[in-house]
Design a protein that fits this description.
The complex is a heterodimer of chains A (102) and B (137). Chain A has 102 residues and is α/β, with parallel strands linked by helices. Chain A has helices at residues 22-29, 48-63, 75-83, and strands spanning 2-6, 10-17, 35-46, 67-73, 91-94. In chain A, helix 1 (22-29) packs parallel to helix 2 (48-63). Chain B has a single domain (2-131), classed as Histidine kinase-like ATPase, C-terminal domain (Heat Shock Protein 90, 2-Layer Sandwich). Helices cover 32% and strands 25% of the residues of chain B. The chains are: A alpha/beta (102), B alpha+beta (137). The A-B interface holds A 16, 18-20, 45, 47-49, 51-52, 55, 58-59, 62, 76, 80, 83-85, 88-89 and B 9-10, 12-13, 16, 34, 37-38, 41-42, 45, 89, 91-93, 95-96, 98, 100, 103-104, 106-107, 110-111.
Chain lengths: 102, 137
């Protein structure tokens, strides 16, 4: 299950961004302009198809002087971004560590 | 566990559900889940995209082994397509030169290591092993 929602800063992703969801994701990313934040706090999974959507949008926005900023990135997604070299292409902000129980 | 998959991307959801059920049944560690899901998806999608002349189902098999799982995917009535022949991706290229072709297999290699390939009687089979890394004390 994949969900994308517009936010004032850009877009919030949730669930699994796999090859089956990439088309749906692309429609949302096509609406982004200038500089946009991609909130990945609720994103559980991304495959190369999802990375392709990010790359295509980032290239388009960079050509106009903007770009994507990936925020609230969990360790699994961060590992995928690292293996693909995307951490060198995007600004990546890791998720804050979970607050210890009070 | 054996599963017959139609050549549709919507089958990825069924693959994940089957993997979850298999992991729960065999007590396999959740730490392997992401690598198994990603490698299985990438190899399945490759089979669909590189063999568009058939409508035959793709067979997915999951087998528990010590400390891990062996996953294999078999494409029936296929021309040979050895994923090991796909050129490595240069992840150091600047943004304007980056393409996503080959990225899936690059991630598979990064997450699960070697992919095995056999071709016999027009059947292409790719498989990989995902194992828990031994803990060094």
């Amino acid at each position: 299950m994949f969900e994308a929602q517009s936010t004032p800063e850009g877009i919030r992703l949730a669930g699994r961004l796999d090859a089956a969801a990439a088309g749906q994701a692309e429609l949302h990313f096509d609406d982004l302009a200038s500089t946009a934040e991609v909130d990945m706090a609720e994103l559980d999974y991304i495959s190369s198809a999802g990375l392709g959507v990010l790359l295509k949008c980032h290239k388009r926005l960079m050509a106009g002087g903007g770009g994507l900023r990936l925020v609230q990135v969990n360790p699994h997604i961060a590992e995928i971004l690292h293996y693909s070299g995307f951490d060198m292409l995007f600004e990546v902000v890791p998720a804050s560590p979970a607050r210890p129980p009070v | 566990m054996k599963l017959s998959l139609t050549r549709e991307l919507s089958e990825i959801q069924r693959i994940v559900e089957a993997r979850r059920a298999f992991f729960a049944e065999r007590g396999l560690p959740a730490t392997l889940a992401y690598a198994v899901d990603l490698a299985t998806e990438e190899l399945f999608v490759n089979m669909i995209r590189h063999n568009s002349v058939t409508t035959e189902a793709i067979t997915l098999e999951l087998e528990a082994v010590q400390d891990g799982v062996v996953i294999s995917l078999t494409d029936h009535n296929a021309e040979p397509f050895d994923p090991r022949d796909v050129a490595p991706v240069d992840c150091t290229l600047p943004l304007e030169e980056r393409r996503t072709g080959g990225l899936g297999l690059h991630l598979v290699r990064s997450l699960v290591g070697a992919v095995h390939y056999t071709y016999q009687n027009r059947c292409s089979t790719v498989s990989f092993v995902a194992k828990v890394e031994p803990q060094h004390v």
